[in-house]
Each structure stands twice: as C-alpha cells, then as structure tokens.
Amino acid sequence: MKFQIFHRTRYAYAAPVRESFNEVRLKPVSNEHQHCDAFVLKILPATRLRHYDDFFLNCVHHFEIPEPHSSLSIEADTTVTTNRANWLDPAATPFPLARVAECARMERCFDYLQSSSYVEIGPELWRLALDITVGQTDVWQAAQALLRWVHGNFVYAPFATTAYTHMSEALERRTGVCQDYAHVLIGLCRAIQIPALYVSGYLHTPNADATHAWVEVFLPEIGWRALDPTHNCQPDEHYVKIAVGRDYADVPPTRGHYKGTQDRLMEVGVRIQEIPA
C-alpha cells in the first residue's frame, strides 16, 4: 500500500521563548516491510535542519531557534510504501522456549532484555508472565499468549494515562492507550527473557488515522517479528514504522527544551491518505 502522511505539531507559548533546542523522530524507516519514498520536514520559525542516526538507527532531525518566538510549528510530509510479505504463521513454533536464555548472549538483544525508563522487570511481573505462558513450549507461542492476555485484560481508555505513565502503573490500573499496552507486553516478554522492543509509527484505519505504538519480539533463527497488543494482531500493510527503542523514552516524535514560560499549548494532527496503486 502507498500512503501520503501529514503530521503537524504546533506549540503556542503564552510569552516569547528563546534558545529552543529540539529533536524530531518522524521519518519512517526503510526496510523489507516498507520504503520511505519521500520525506520533507518544515520548521517555523525557519531554521537549519541537521540529522543523524541514533543508537537504535532511528533517523533523528535536530534544530535550534535561539531568537525569541511565540510559536513553533513542526510539519512532516511523507510518502511511504508498505509491504508485509513475511508475515509469520500464528501457529508456527520456530524456537523452543527452553532455549530462550540464549538470547541474552546475543549483542543485538541485550538492551531489550533489561529494565528501562518505563519498563521495570521484577519478581511479581516474572510470576505473572510465567502464569500466562504456562504450558507454552515455544518462544513465538509464548509471546502470542502474552499478547492475548494484555489485549484481553486491559481497557482502552484515552486520557487515562499520559506519555510519561510507567508500565507498573498501567498494569495496576489495567487501563491505558497503545503506549501502555506496548509497555506492559514488553515487560512481560522481558520478564521471561524474550527480547522485546518498542515501535512508534502510524496506523491507518477506515475510521481514524493516528500515531500508534506496538512491539517487536526477537525469535532466534527468524529475527524480529511485530505484535500489536492494542488490536491483538500482527501488524500488516496498514502500519507505518517510524522508530524503535527500549520504550517510549527512546522514540518520542518531538523532544526539546527552551528558556521561557512553561505556559504553553500543544496541538498535534495526523492525516493519512491512501494513494491508489
């Protein structure tokens, strides 16, 4: 599928601010599942943009606005083509759960087995993960059991949490949004030594276009495979991947700091249009 995506973030400040330094993670990745055909980032007030690849190989644009300004607009215009050709059979059993500890010796998995900013692994979470996966003998099947549990035991509740809500709080409340679903699934997977990472991106549906979050788990001899606990499914061609990290703290669409008033308003809008083949 081919999509045109327009993402706008606008800040309005109660009084002029200055010395604004910002990072933006909005450019979709290009891999075997999708290709970023075009990407244009526009900043107002106008400024010079630079970019680099971070530790997780996400494309990060950064800029600074030293002079006083009363508003900041960040607009990303993207064209991307998606393809989920190597979707994994839900019934597959590619790697024994009894050998999952081998992942801890793989360099690319190490960071995704530890506690992180919004995900904490402890004895209670380990016990819960064991109870959920009782009887499972395969890593992929265990991950799907955890997926089904999160989807079936949480209530989707916009505004019940914030971008800074910790996994443990979301787990206690059993409510939240896609970010919370993802953090809880990541924690449960890591608790039983299944490497799991956080994915930020977009989801296009007939009823709504929005930023979204889901999870990828690592299967030895297979690689990373995506799971969406919010919708209890494997992401398909309607999903657009932007960035990955240990949790949300590694992949916010915008992040920065400035000098001046804390009184501000933020508006975010996303529009996704399917382009006919």
Structure in words:
By secondary structure, this protein is α+β, with helices and mostly antiparallel strands. It has two domains: 2-83 and 252-275, Immunoglobulin-like (Sandwich), CATH 2.60.40.2250; 97-250, C8orf32 fold, CATH 3.10.620.30. The chain has four helices and 13 strands. Strands 1, 2, 3, 4, 5, 12 and 13 form a seven-stranded antiparallel sheet that branches. A four-stranded antiparallel sheet has the order 10-9-8-11, covered by helices on one side. It has a two-stranded parallel ribbon with strand order 6-7. Helix 2 runs antiparallel to helix 4 (178-191) and helix 3 crosses helix 4 (178-191).
Short key terms for the protein model shown above:
277 residues; alpha+beta; Immunoglobulin-like; C8orf32 fold; 7-stranded antiparallel β-sheet; 4-stranded antiparallel β-sheet; 4 helices; globular
| Radius of gyration of CA atoms, rounded to a whole number | 19 Å
The class by helix and strand makeup works out as alpha+beta
Counting structural domains, the number is 2
CATH 2nd-level architecture of the largest domain: Roll
Number of helices: 4
Percent of residues in beta strands: 35-45%
Q: Secondary-structure element order, as H and E?
A: EEEEEHHEHEHEEEEEE
**Mean of residue pLDDT values:** 95
Helical fraction:
10-25%
Low-confidence stretches: none
* Largest beta-sheet details: 7 strands, antiparallel
Based on DSSP secondary structure assignment, what is the total number of beta strands? 13
Q: Oligomeric form of this entry?
A: single chain
The fold-level CATH name of the largest domain is C8orf32 fold
| The first-level CATH class name of the largest domain | Alpha Beta
Gross morphology:
globular
N-end to C-end Cα span: 7 Å
